[in-house]
Amino acid sequence: MAPESSDYAFGVGHTGELQPHLKPFTEFLAEFNKETERGAALTAAAFLDDLLQKVIEAFLIKNKSGKSLSDGFNAPLGTLSSRIAACHAMGLISDEEFQECELIKKIRNEFAHKMKMSFEIEPVRGLSSSMHYKVADARDARGQFTSSAVVMLMRLTNRAHYVGQKALKYERWPI
C-alpha cells in the first residue's frame, strides 16, 4: 500500500521511518514549540545560524582554510549576519530567503538586547508581520514569526546536501 502523500510532507517515507536528514529539524521543532517568546526568537535564529554554516561549508572546498572561514574564534563567516550575507552573495539563498533571514536576525536581536520584549511590542510586531512565509491566518505576531521561521528553516534543512553537489573545486588557472 502506498503511503499517504501527507506522510512525505512530514518526512516519513514508505517504511514509516523519519527520514534521517530531518532528525535535527524535528528535534528543533520539539524544543521550539515549548519555548517562551524570547526563547523562540533565540532558538530559531540559532538553528538558522547552524543551517547556514552547514550550507557554506558544503559549498567551500573541503580543506582547513574553508573550515576556518566559518568555524572558530574570529572566523570571518562566524556570525549569523556574515553567514546570511555570504550565502546570499554566493547564490546559496534567494533574495526572498535573504530577506526572511534578515527579519529573523532582527527579531532575535530585539529579544537578545532588550530586557522587556514581546512579539506584541514594536518593532517586533511590525517585523513579524512583514515576514514572507507566514501563514495567512496567523492570529498574532508570534504566530506570524513561528510559521515563517519554521518554513524558512525547513527550506534550508536539506540545502547543504544540494549545495554540496555543486561545491567549489580546485581550478588550474592560466598564468
What is this structure's SSE topology?
Elements (H helix, E strand, L loop, with lengths): L4 H5 L13 H10 L4 H23 L4 H7 L9 H10 L5 H19 L10 H6 L11 H17 L1 H6 L11
Can you walk through the features of this model?
The protein is an all-alpha fold. It has one domain (36-164): Nucleotidyltransferases  domain 2 (Four Helix Bundle (Hemerythrin (Met), subunit A), Up-down Bundle), CATH 1.20.120.330. It has 9 helices and no strands. The radius of gyration is 18 Å and the shape is globular. 29% of the residues are buried.
The N- and C-terminal alpha carbons lie at a distance of 61 Å
Major sheet size, sense and barrel closure: none
Q: How many helical stretches?
A: 9
The percent range for strand residues is under 5%
* Rg estimate, integer Å: 18 Å
Q: What is the H/E string?
A: HHHHHHHHH
Inertia-based shape:
globular
Q: Give the low-confidence spans.
A: 1-10
Q: What's the name of the CATH homologous superfamily?
A: Nucleotidyltransferases  domain 2
Number of domains: 1
CATH topology: Four Helix Bundle (Hemerythrin (Met), subunit A)
β-strand number: 0
Helix content: 55-70%
Q: Structural class from helices and strands?
A: mainly alpha
What is the name of the CATH class?
A: Mainly Alpha
Mind telling me which CATH architecture this is?
Up-down Bundle
